[in-house]
Design goal:
- The protein has 181 residues and is an all-alpha fold.
- It has two domains: 4-59; 62-178, no CATH class.
- The protein contains ten helices and no strands.
- The longest helix is centred in the N-terminal third of the chain and has 31 residues, at 29-59.
- It is rod-shaped.
- The relative contact order is 0.09.
- Mean pLDDT is 83; it is low at 161-181.
Length: 181
């Protein structure tokens, strides 16, 4: 299969060959061949760069450029579009993610449905065994029902309860297993 990524360098090569030959052949056969080779190479690499530069630009990861403290602060923003990505980046930097579980559980009871959706997604990806404790969670149910389910998680894990609280041994063990994610 031939794609734009294949055609652009071939087109650059062809245009370079023709232009180089046209200019160089005014001075003879050998300069025409040299001009074609030089301009063909320049055309080929110019077309490759025109395609690769935007791809390199798109491939950059804005989370990698932020400091750990900036990532922690961004988790508190209810408008954060990708809390899962931020948590995974913090985990990749060696951060103890169990410190952020209470914040994610707090966001499960947010008045904004999108924030609840994002928080539950983060819970499922980063702490999948904790998420199974509220497998019936649906962000569409409304903030009151979601808050009840978030409270259920808080009661099950003392590190997420605002004033401490009873914990079941299963949740304490589960959140410890998920910490490496």
């Amino acid at each position: 299969m031939t794609t734009l990524f294949d055609l652009a360098p071939i087109g650059g090569l062809t245009i370079g060959l023709l232009a180089g030959h046209a200019v160089g052949s005014r001075f003879g056969t050998i300069p025409g061949m040299v001009g074609a080779a030089l301009c063909g190479g320049v055309g080929f690499w110019a077309a490759r760069l025109l395609i690769l530069l935007p791809l390199w630009w798109l491939d950059r990861d804005p989370l990698k450029r932020k400091t750990t403290e900036q990532l922690r602060r961004s988790l508190r923003d209810p408008e954060l579009a990708n809390p899962t990505g931020v948590l995974l980046e913090l985990g990749a930097r060696g951060e103890n993610l169990s410190n952020h579980l209470s914040l994610v559980i707090e966001q499960l009871g947010s008045p904004l449905q999108e924030t609840r959706n994002r928080a539950f997604h983060a819970l499922r990806v980063v702490w999948p065994s904790v998420a199974t404790l509220v497998s019936d969670f649906r962000a569409e149910e409304g903030p009151d029902e979601c808050q009840r389910k978030a409270d259920r998680l808080r009661r099950a894990n003392p590190s997420t309860a605002p004033n401490g609280g009873p914990a079941t041994s299963s949740v304490t063990q589960l959140s410890g297993k998920d910490r490496h994610r």
